[in-house]
């Protein structure tokens, strides 16, 4: 078994950095997940946290994060944000998808009717 793992590693078939990069691109461009969620997903397959962070950092540096969060939002929103409860539900969805709270707030604010996201 060890011989097989060593051989596959030497051949490049077992490469955590390569695997992390593939998963990070998939998380961003196909699943429309935020960086935090992408890191957690990569760690879940057994890749070290530092390697996961490096891969995600590289992918999100190259990708348009605004476009990624907009695509994630489009999965749940058609039209405008209806009311404060709808705003909160969408905000929580985006944060669970791994996007920064301030980014989620600002994107949702652009889709809100007047007063939907005002502070009480």
Describe the protein's topology.
Layout: H1 2-11, H2 16-30, H3 35-44, H4 49-62, H5 65-74, H6 84-96, H7 101-110
Helix pairs in contact: 2-3, 2-4, 3-4, 5-7, 6-7
What report would you give on this structure?
With 120 residues, this protein is mainly alpha-helical. The protein has two domains: 62 residues, no CATH class; 45 residues. Helix content is 68%, strand content 0%. The chain is built from seven helices and no strands. Helix 2 packs across helix 4, helix 3 runs antiparallel to helix 4 and helix 5 packs across helix 7. The radius of gyration is 18 Å and the shape is elongated. The model has no long low-confidence stretch (mean pLDDT 88).
């Amino acid at each position: 078994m060890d011989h097989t793992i060593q051989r596959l590693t030497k051949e490049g078939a077992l490469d955590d950095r390569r695997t992390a990069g593939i998963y990070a691109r998939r998380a961003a461009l196909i699943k429309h997940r935020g960086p935090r969620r992408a890191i957690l997903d990569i760690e879940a397959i057994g890749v070290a946290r530092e390697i996961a962070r490096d891969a995600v950092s590289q992918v999100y540096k190259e990708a348009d994060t605004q476009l990624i969060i907009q695509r994630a939002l489009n999965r749940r929103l058609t039209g405008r944000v209806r009311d404060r409860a709808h705003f909160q539900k969408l905000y929580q969805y985006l944060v669970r998808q791994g996007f920064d709270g301030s980014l989620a707030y600002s994107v949702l604010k652009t889709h809100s009717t007047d007063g939907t996201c005002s502070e009480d």
